[in-house]
Design brief:
heterodimer, A: 159 residues, mainly alpha, Cytochrome Bc1 Complex, Chain D, domain 2, 6 helices, 0% strand, B: 464 residues, Cytochrome C Oxidase, Chain A, globular
Chain lengths: 159, 464
């Protein structure tokens, strides 16, 4: 049985794949920008908080990405308080990224500029409905005091 | 544990696929409650609350649906089709059984780890490192069986479905490995590139695995169910065409603009395979449309193809910057993903089960009436679900862009929509329970009558 077709298929698929990898992965990696002033180097506690943010899946409902056309215009509580546009270098030290794809809740890129105290965040994490009637956010009262403190510390880096 | 009987692995894959359909839809149902009645959380015992919280249940719902139900239904169908299109035995039935065991091990692993909060924190790539490796191994085992069987074929012509299986599996293995950074336990890259690579993977998970392989399966089902050769084999090969970047999932993002423009060009080019497949489908269906009135599997296939076309049109529209600006981040996108996943690929999955399972267990489906219930509950439920989400998405988009009302106002105003979505979702869940019941009764029925395969055993895809 002739197998030349299989050779064509394999090489064709691999060439297509290689093209995708070069364009989508290699070139953007080569021209990736350096850190901006907003790029955060995390402390140990903030990093622990970031891990909790990841573990509890906060990023499924909250994006961390302010787009050009909505920057300083969209309203979270009042007009414009969504904050300035996100730049690639803002994420320089982050892994993984929490850009997100859905906003069941508001964008959190600059949440610390809207709510500045650790106490408020911990209270809100424990009982969101008491502070914001009608919110969809679930309660995270099952987290330990230490975990809540870490998570709040991370949220406060989102300036 | 490792029977050598032809078709036994395929049969097992269908059994477990139906099980892995029920688990994630129950999770989805719970999520839909939390989206209009958050106090529902208080009814969950405190000890269970962490595991059933929205942010942990959502990835479990998604991963089990895509890598469980649909991927296993695909694998079962591939193992069923391979010997028939190559006119030879499967390269190794035992290897296929090993594949089945390891695949279910993977899914049990996902079921235990994701609600426990063990995640890599990247969409569609949540599974932790050991599971990443296990997943890769599973697709490699499947690939080995496919390639070796095709190499040993006794039918000189390779039907288009086989091309699609081979290309899809080959590309997916690499895409998964790169997208999930399988050589590193964290599974994540650093900085902006993490997201670019994540969406390269997400897009090609759908493009190489669900679409390329799915089109291959549809092109097998179509001539089988209509008992008519495919309109054009040459046109079908145009379906082997991919969109290579995934950046149109993240337009207006901080990623480079040139990448966004490139991805838009590729998205528009996707019109070529879309039109090729749709044209081929419609021409093959000519003179057979009325058959859908009483042929449920064919009706699932045709409805799936219609939803597939709609997905492609929506997908291209969403990849324009103007439209993306409007609907991105809204519930519109949730509607779109269910249109693609349930409306087309799962509908084809149901047609696969209804065609193949009776042949594999040598008896007809237990109840035709229940098949009708399955079709109508799923189709009507899904339509209510999607249309409601699209409307909700447009309301969100409008409110966000006019910058006038606080965010929470929009959330509150959407509550009725979320309730209707819950009802539509409930109908879908009911439909799947009907399906599972019918499936189980078929599996457990005493073997009284035999059923002939819809086509002579060993016949090709109908294209020859």
């Amino acid at each position: 049985m002739k197998q030349t077709g299989l050779v064509y298929l394999t090489s064709g698929s691999l060439i297509a794949l290689l093209f995708g990898v070069i364009v989508t992965i290699l070139i953007p990696a080569l021209e990736a920008p350096g850190p901006t002033a907003l790029a955060q180097k995390y402390t140990e506690q903030e990093l622990r908080g970031r891990e909790i943010y990841k573990r509890e899946g906060c990023w499924y409902c909250h994006t961390q990405q302010v787009r050009e056309f909505e920057a300083n215009r969209s309203a979270i509580h009042q007009k414009g308080d969504i904050g300035p546009e996100s730049l690639a270098g803002d994420y320089y030290y982050q892994s993984p990224l929490f850009w997100g794809t859905e906003r069941q809740g508001p964008d959190l890129t600059h949440v610390a500029s809207r709510f500045g105290t650790r106490e408020w965040h911990i209270l809100h994490l424990k009982n969101p409905r008491a502070l914001i009637p009608g919110t969809l956010m679930p309660s995270f009262a099952y987290l330990s005091d230490q975990e809540l403190d870490d998570l709040a510390a991370y949220l406060l880096t989102l300036k | 544990m490792w029977p050598d009987e032809p078709g036994s692995a395929s049969r097992r894959f269908f059994y477990s696929a139906v099980f892995w359909l029920i688990v994630p839809i129950l999770m989805g149902f719970t999520l839909s409650i939390l989206l209009f009645a958050p106090p529902f959380q208080d009814l969950i015992p405190r000890a269970w609350q962490p595991y059933l919280n929205f942010g942990r249940l959502r990835p479990a719902h998604v991963n089990l649906a895509i890598f469980g139900w649909l991927s296993q239904a695909y694998a079962g169908a591939i193992y069923y089709i391979l010997p028939r299109l190559t006119r030879t035995k499967l390269f190794s039935e035992r290897l296929a059984h090993l594949n089945w065991w390891l695949w279910n091990l993977l899914l049990v692993g996902a079921l235990l780890t994701l609600p426990a909060g063990l995640t890599q924190g990247r969409e569609y790539a949540e599974m932790i490192w050991p599971l990443d490796l296990l997943l890769l191994l599973n697709w490699i085992l499947l690939g080995v069986n496919v390639w070796m069987t095709v190499r040993r074929r006794r039918e000189p012509k390779i039907y288009v479905s086989l091309w699609n299986f081979m290309a899809g599996i080959l590309i997916f293995v690499f895409v998964y490995a790169i997208g999930n950074k399988v050589w590193a336990p964290s599974g994540a890259y650093t900085g902006m590139n993490d997201n670019i690579i994540n969406y390269f993977y997400v897009h090609n998970l759908f493009n190489s695995w669900f679409t390329t392989v799915g089109i291959g399966l549809a092109l097998y089902l179509l001539p089988k169910l209509t008992e008519k050769p495919l309109y054009s084999h040459r046109l079908a090969l145009w379906g082997l065409w991919s969109v290579w970047t995934g950046q149109h999932h993240q337009l207006w993002s901080p990623a480079p603009d040139w990448l966004e423009y490139l991805t838009i060009v590729f998205s528009i080019l996707a019109a070529v395979p879309t039109i090729a497949f749709t044209w081929n489908f419609v021409k093959t269906m000519e003179g057979r449309w009325t058959q859908t009135a009483d042929d449920v599997p064919l009706r699932f296939l045709v409805t799936g193809a219609f939803f597939w076309f709609l997905t492609c049109v929506q997908g291209v529209a969403q990849s324009f910057r103007g439209f993306s600006m409007f609907v991105h981040f809204t519930n519109w996108v949730v509607g779109h993903s269910h249109l693609a996943f349930v409306g087309d690929y799962s509908f084809w999955g149901f047609a696969l089960v209804y065609l193949m399972f009776p042949v594999l267990v040598k008896r007809p489906m237990y109840s035709r009436r229940l098949m009708e219930w399955h079709y109508w509950l799923t189709t009507v439920g899904l339509s209510i679900f999607m249309v409601t989400l699209w409307m909700a998405g447009l309301i969100q988009a409008q409110n966000w862009l006019t910058n006038s009302v606080p965010f929470i106002e929009t959330v509150r105003s959407l509550q009725p929509y979320m309730m209707i979505r819950f009802i539509g979702g409930g109908m879908m869940v009911a439909g799947q329970f009907v399906f599972a019941y019918n499936f189980l009764r078929t599996a457990l029925a005493r073997q009284t009558k035999t059923v002939a395969a819809p086509m002579p055993a060993g016949a090709g895809g109908g294209g020859e």
